[in-house]
Design goal:
Elements (H helix, E strand, L loop, with lengths): L9 H14 L32 H12 L8 E4 L2 E3 L6 H19 L10 H5 L40 H11 L3 H5 L3 E10 L3 E10 L3 E8 L3 E7 L4 E5 L2 E4 L2 H10 L8 H4 L4 E8 L2 E11 L2 E8 L5 E9 L4 E14 L2 E10 L7 E10 L19
Antiparallel strand pairs: 1-2, 3-4, 3-15, 4-5, 5-6, 6-7, 7-8, 9-10, 10-11, 11-12, 12-13, 13-14, 14-15
Length: 384
């Protein structure tokens, strides 16, 4: 299961919302209202009691990535896709439970741990057996100056001058074309492909209309046509398994995605923004803003310090066991009718099998779009 993530603009929100809503079964990171804890849904849950059921798969994927193993390391496979997850036949499952409880105890009794506490990855770092000794040869640490000198031990560190939130966002809005250019637009059509595991390319079309309507249509080789949309009131998705209305966190995500002018009012998309500091993406200097969307969800936005463009968003969801990350990268910005649009968007998850890349080949603005496209398709007639 992949994780959904809130994005900055109508374009980026929509890309992720439209893909996640139906390709991945419509699961969201945020706990839907009234969702049951995992022990009420699954069998033989012992140490993860209280975890929302929708977070179980991301947590399992986090553990798998942290140890560099797959499900069969702890769980019983009865052949093919048949799993008997409730069984305790493998000793590694008991060890995993003890390690999870150990992690809980460490974090409970050491609330001042930097970075929000220890996780499986803290010690394992992709290995089933954690390393207890340094790997030689070691690189000596950089001292950064003599004792007492700038940057040296005991020496003063020069204060870094960082821009304000408004300065970063104003530069971003100007970088993508400015408010006046955006307000000249009233619709958008985008065509391209979604590249998934194994290099499979799925044709995709998306349509948006101001102020708050959108629809995406994907033609997959196995599932046929997959659709998702929002008509200003109702969010919906449809695939070969059926059609349904979106609700809860998914509906809220679609509602944000449908805001056609979201790019030029980022503070409405991301509350409580603050400047976290400076970083790098490749050879590009970036300013990092953070937004706390909820008690268990934060977003880190990376803006190019020179151009002002948004290069990356890292979303972090706090679960009972660990902070689950996902990352979206924006590349190949091109000018379309005076507004810059990223023609390549890459999504990365804790389980790399879920990664995907969307590449657009055609983007047009102010095109005529049939309003009926945004409405849920009428139900199929009952068989006679």
């Amino acid at each position: 299961m992949k994780q959904t993530v809130l994005k900055l603009s109508a374009l980026t929100l929509f890309v992720v919302a439209s893909v996640m809503a139906f390709i991945n079964g419509g699961h969201a990171q945020q706990q839907p209202q009234g969702e049951k804890p995992v022990e009420q849904v699954r069998k033989n849950i012992q140490v993860l009691k209280g975890l929302p059921d929708s977070q179980l798969i991301p947590v399992m994927q986090f553990m798998s990535a942290s140890l560099g193993v797959n499900c069969a390391f702890c769980h019983v496979n009865a052949g093919g896709d048949k799993w008997e997850f409730e069984k305790d036949d493998k000793p590694t499952k008991g060890t995993a439970r003890r390690m999870i409880q150990m992690q809980f105890d460490i974090n409970k009794n050491n609330k001042d741990i930097v970075g929000g506490g220890v996780t499986c990855y803290t010690c394992h770092k992709g290995q089933s057996e954690p390393r207890g000794t340094p790997q030689l040869p070691l690189t000596p640490p950089a001292m950064g100056g003599g004792p007492g000198g700038p940057g040296g031990p005991g020496g003063p560190r020069p204060a870094e001058q960082l821009p304000t939130v408004d300065q970063v966002l104003d530069k971003y809005v100007q970088a993508i074309g400015g408010k006046a250019a955006y307000e000249k637009l009233n619709s958008r059509m985008m065509k391209g492909v979604q590249i998934v595991g194994g290099g499979v390319e799925i044709p995709v079309e998306t349509y948006q209309a101001a102020p708050n309507k959108l629809v995406s249509i994907m033609t997959t080789p196995r599932q046929g046509v997959i659709m998702s949309g929002y008509n200003g009131t109702v969010g919906w998705s449809k695939n070969a398994r059926g059609q349904r209305e979106l609700s809860g966190a998914q509906l809220e995500q679609m509602r944000r995605a449908a805001d056609f002018y979201g790019d030029i009012k980022p503070k409405e998309i991301f509350p409580n923004l603050r400047v976290a500091g400076r970083s790098k993406i490749g050879d590009r200097d970036v300013f990092v803003l953070t937004s706390r969307l909820s008690d268990d969800r934060t977003e880190r936005l990376f803006f190019d310090a020179q151009t002002g463009l948004l290069l990356r968003i890292v979303g972090i969801t706090q679960t009972l066991l660990a902070r689950i990350p996902e990352q979206t990268d924006f590349e190949d910005y091109r000018d379309v009718d005076g507004v810059k649009v990223p023609f390549t968007i890459r999504q990365s998850f804790i389980d790399p099998r879920n990664d995907w890349t969307r590449k657009y080949t055609e983007v047009k603005h102010n095109v005529a779009v049939d309003e009926a496209k945004f409405n849920p398709p009428p139900p199929a007639p009952a068989p006679k």
